[in-house]
Amino acid sequence: MFDEDTIVAIATANGIGSISIVRVSGKEALPIALKISKKENLTPRVATLHSLYNSNNELIDEALLIYFKNPNSFTGEDIVEFQCHGGMAISNIILDEVVKHGGRLAQPGEFSKRAFHNGKIDLSKAEAIAKIIEARSEDAVKLLARQLKGELSTFVEDIRKDLLFMLAYTEVNIDYAEEDLPEDIFKQIEVKLDNIKIKLHTTLDASKRREGLIEGFKVAIIGKPNVGKSSLLNKLLNFDRAIISDIAGTTRDTIEESVKIGTHLIKIVDTAGIREANDVIEKIGIEKSLEAVSQADIIIALFDNSKALDSEDEKILDILDEINNKEKLLVLNKSDLQNLFDKSKLSEFIELSTKVDINPLIKHIEKILDANSHGDDMTLISKRQVQAVEQTLYHIKHSHEPLHSGELEFFAYHITEAMQHISNITRPYENDQMLDVMFGEFCLGK
User: Fold this and answer.
1) pTM of the full structure
2) What are the percentages of helix, strand and coil residues in the chain, rounded to 5?
3) 21: domain CATH number?
4) Beta strand 59-68 with 264-270: parallel, antiparallel or unpaired?
5) 171 part of a folded domain
6) Alpha carbon distance, N-terminus to C-terminus of the chain
7) What is the pLDDT of residues 232-253, one digit of tens each?
8) CB atoms within 10 A of CB 61
9) How far apart are the C-alpha atoms of 24 and 33, rounded to whole Å?
10) Contact between 36 and 52 (Cβ < 8 Å)
11) Which one-letter DSSP state was computed for residue 353?
């Protein structure tokens, strides 16, 4: 049974501010608020100023109280919000008073959990709520706002309806073979399967491109020692984060920092210079560099305009050739010095000096980020959602053969599995939904 306790928590961030909000949810929320405010009633959805008192009848504060009557609240239960003056002392006193009058402290995420159980939000919206609080870029907020509005829920529901359609007709064909079914029903199912596959593939591709949107796209800077990687990092951050010297191998570990480019938050990773190294510590740093490259969304490869191309540069080019499905920017640094580098070895490159101006590189990075961030394609925001779509796609693909061969029991199995996996994104699938479609549309009367 779902917990019916009245719960309370401070809904605003810790610290000193102008307002602090204490939120109470449950069947005793209103009676508790009336005891603390010494009022006979509160008008739903109207903010009113009241004096608040502790159990010793001592004045605590003057605060705005807002009563949200069930089911018209975030949790679907009665909710009262105390909007008191900011500061932990006042809000903690109110918290204690609510507990004294029968409430209990809420567990992390319990308000959202109750909203889910009461049908106010689904799992996709709950995930969006959790992530939008931690969002660190404008693009992430825009994407998560779309999920809060129900875009992913609608996407899932459309697929569920098509799968229910297939399952209902299939079950009828299995159990009631004498019933007259539309002649083109299997053609309709085939078309729906193909459309679902396209939707799921498109969604997975878009999600992969935008994987770094929530926590920040990762950009790795690679190159042989002394090409200016640390100088570039410092220039991007606008402060001296990395040590710069003429000694090869100064950077022996990856250095990671966050910086904003345009509306995008990115994680810049300065890596150890890649070369043949005898030093054990430097070798470990180079291994970490290669690992950072594999995890990056964008790779910036630096080459030294003032030095002739050598085997270490060739090594960097070989690494780039082995990398697919990642954005790669080739940068010829130290353009303010005499050119000795063979430019013909670089197909497309950006020429600059980290000591003078890196804006050409920043514009290229922003262009890539804009392309990956914008668009109307559905985007998944968690590994759980991605895995659910991957499993759905797996069963959709494996449903074609039994459909064509007439093995409808196996076809129904794959469609049921697909239904369960796609439903896990929002709300677990219940078999009664298929039965409602089956008996509601066909009027079998048996």
Assistant:
1) 0.72
2) 45, 15, 35
3) 3.30.1360.120
4) unpaired
5) yes
6) 35
7) 888 887 744 433 334 344 444 4
8) 18
9) 9
10) yes
11) B
